Each structure stands twice: as C-alpha cells, then as structure tokens.
Amino acid sequence: MKKSTKSIFAALMVIGTLAACNQKPNSTINAATQATNEIVDTSESEVELGDLSIANPRARALLGGQTTTAAFMDIENEGAADKLISASSEGLTAELHSHAMVDGMMQMRQVAAIEVPANGVAELKPGSFHIMLFNAPATMVAGSNFKLKLKFEKAGEVEIDVPVLQDVG
Ligand SMILES: [Cu+2]
Known about the structure:
Shape: globular
Bound molecules: copper (II) ion
CATH class: Mainly Beta
C-alpha cells in the first residue's frame, strides 16, 4: 500500500494569474519533494505505470462561467528519474505548468516537462506544479470525472481517471 502526501497549501493557491500562462516553456524545474508526515491513503485511486504510480488525481471544479482550471496528482517513482512531458484530454487543452514566485509575484508558467525524481515523488498540487486545463467543458463540475492522458519520457503513456472536486486540497 502506497502513501502520499497531502498538500497543506490549498489556501495559498491563487488562480488570478492566468495572464502568465501564455508564456513559452522555459526550463524544466525540479518538482522533487520529500515526503512529509501528513499521510493520506490513496491506494484506491492509484494507477501503476512501470516504476511510477500516480496517486490522488484530482481537478478543481469550474467556477461559474470559467473555462480554465487545473489538475493535480502525486507521481511516485520507485525507479530511475523520469519526466512528465505532456498531458492531454479530449475536448480541452492541457499544459504543464509551474507556479513560482517571480519578481515578488506568484506566477504560473508553462514548462516543457515536470521532473519525477528517482525514488521520489513529484507532487502536482495547488501553488506548485500542475496541469492547466483550458477550454474545459462546462460539465467539469464537482462529482464528475474525466480521462487524462499522461506521457512520460521513459515510462511511456497512461490514461488516468480524474475526479473533479470542489476542494482539491
Ligand atoms: Cu497554470
């Protein structure tokens, strides 16, 4: 049974910086994070792909009138370093994004890849790396699900089922 960490940064997520989302990918940024003491059992929703397991997938429900939101997950790696190089979902546009302090302001940027460290975890979570979803269908409300295809440099491709939640934690 695998464990994953749960973000404590939900309250810090700022969704109002979409203007920063149109920038071109620059460098890959290391998403390595160490496990913390706060443990959530996500074994039910885990998907295995080679040495990787994808746990706790979730997307934030669309707010009224919006078409942009984001998906999050923990990518656990029991093998050599890998990279998430793309995400896609039918009927919308998905991009890999970082979320970092730039010149004193929190900004999101598109990145070419999200590193998954050897024997470590890449945490995609609010306020950090995430999969940005543009032109999302109005059906993306709490309680719904959608398919998201992930492509890794070494492990290859996998399609996961992402629950849409009001609170993505
Ligand atoms: Cu973003």
